[in-house]
Write a structure and sequence with these properties.
With 202 residues, the chain is mainly alpha-helical. Helix 7 crosses helix 8.
Length: 202
């Protein structure tokens, strides 16, 4: 019982640190805050922080990991039982929504910058964080092949990775205001591009 209580307390403190980091991101849009800022925001101690995380990078990685797992769980529920083409459109809509507030925009900017850092410095961890989303896209593609909506013979792993990177890349461009053709790429553009590659020539 004591061990269970200690584990729950550790988890609670980890969650508190992640919520504090998320709050700072929402205020500043930056990930260059210090561990001390997180500790002060969470009203805990440095000792408590380092019992759970070895560094700020580990904290941010845990935050992104949790966001991706929870988001993908919701997206699975949103797309469950839908025809594959509809499921793909719903998923892309969920992955690429415009920010609903200035706070969400700042969070998106901060996390997008950290994703770049993660891909460069910890590529294996970066890949691991994206596994749930990649698996969901693979499931939708395989469902489409079984339905006859998508053509047979696709390299599902590779196509799923391309769809995922297209969606995340377009979202990143919008977050940073990169408009190559004078207007932002939206979810509809991404869906049309991706589904054309799945169904082949019409």
């Amino acid at each position: 019982m004591a061990k269970q209580t200690a584990a729950a307390d550790t988890e609670s403190r980890a969650t508190r640190f992640m919520k504090s980091a998320l709050a700072i991101l929402g205020e500043t849009g930056r990930t260059d805050f210090t561990v001390l800022e997180v500790v002060e925001r969470s009203k805990t101690s440095l000792r408590s922080f380092y019992q759970r995380f070895s560094s700020k990078d580990e904290l941010l990685l845990a935050l992104i990991d949790e966001i991706m797992v929870e988001s993908t769980r919701k997206w699975c529920a949103d797309t469950d039982g839908l025809p594959s083409t509809t499921a793909l459109r719903v998923l892309i809509d969920r992955v690429c929504p415009p920010a609903e507030s200035s706070k969400q925009d700042r969070v998106n900017r901060g996390l997008a910058r950290y994703f770049d850092h993660l891909a460069e410095t910890l590529p294996r961890e970066y890949a691991r964080v994206l596994v749930p989303l990649h698996e969901l896209i693979k499931d939708i593609i395989n469902r489409g092949i079984a339905e006859g909506s998508f053509r047979a013979g696709l390299d599902v792993d590779a196509i799923a990775a391309l769809i995922m990177q297209s969606a995340l890349g377009a979202m990143r461009q919008r977050v940073f205001g990169v408009e190559l053709n004078g207007s932002p790429v939206d979810a509809g553009h991404i869906y049309d591009f991706c589904v054309n590659g799945l169904v082949g020539p019409r």
